[in-house]
Amino acid sequence: MAVTKKRTAEIARKTRETDISLSINLDGTGESEINTGIGFFDHMLSAFSRHGFFDLKAKCDGDLYVDCHHTIEDVGIVLGQAINKALGDKAGIRRFGSVMLPMDDALIACAIDLSGRPYLGFDYEFRVERVGYFDTEMVKEFFLAVAENAGMNLHIKVMSGENAHHIIEAMFKAFAKALDEAVTIDPRITGTLSTKGSLQ
What is the dihedral of CA 8, 157, 76, 83, to 10 degrees? Predict the structure, then answer.
């Protein structure tokens, strides 16, 4: 089954804590324009875009004078909504994606099911509180927000690693590669890959 329409989405979300505009193209080339006000987070989102071949634009004006929590979590919410919207009825997609990804000392396993039923498996405890201006406890919160709003079953497991920067970056890259596989159109699939006939 060939892609017959653009799998893109644009989402805007404004609250008293954040003002976000985000767009994604699931069939892109990995181009990105990211500005969240948190340098390390921008780096992670750019890595996600590049390694998943997703075109991603994201701008967030958040209450960083408080801390990074609202910005990171809310971008996760909007990214999840955009992925879900871009997928539409999910016809023809492989649905499942998984990868074992190494980065220096880090080795990360990531598996995804675009089932429509949100779940996050994530049980890693970081040894440091932050990388740059990015609180490491927000890694789990980000992926939880994405999974819940994309209707995604997402498992991320740290197989090995010591350096927090490497571990987090490997997580984002592994997530990108697994998602790229899951959203890929498979010509053998008629309708949705489900015995129920729906992935909503």
Answer: 20
DSSP assignment, residue 191? S
| 8 Å CB contact between 199 and 95 | yes
User: What is the token pair recorded at 92?
Assistant: 């023809």
Name the pLDDT band for 1 (thresholds 50, 70, 90).
very low
**Gap between the Cα atoms of 161 and 127, Å rounded:** 11
b/e sequence 48-68, b meaning 16+ C-beta within 10 Å:
bbbbbbbbbbbbbebbbeeeb
User: pTM of whole model > 0.85?
Assistant: yes
Predicted pLDDT of residue 166: 98
**What are the pLDDT digits (tens) for 104-126?**
999 999 999 999 999 999 999 99
- CA pair distance 21, 130, nearest whole angstrom: 26
96-103, strands of its sheet edge to edge: 96-103, 106-113, 153-160, 119-122
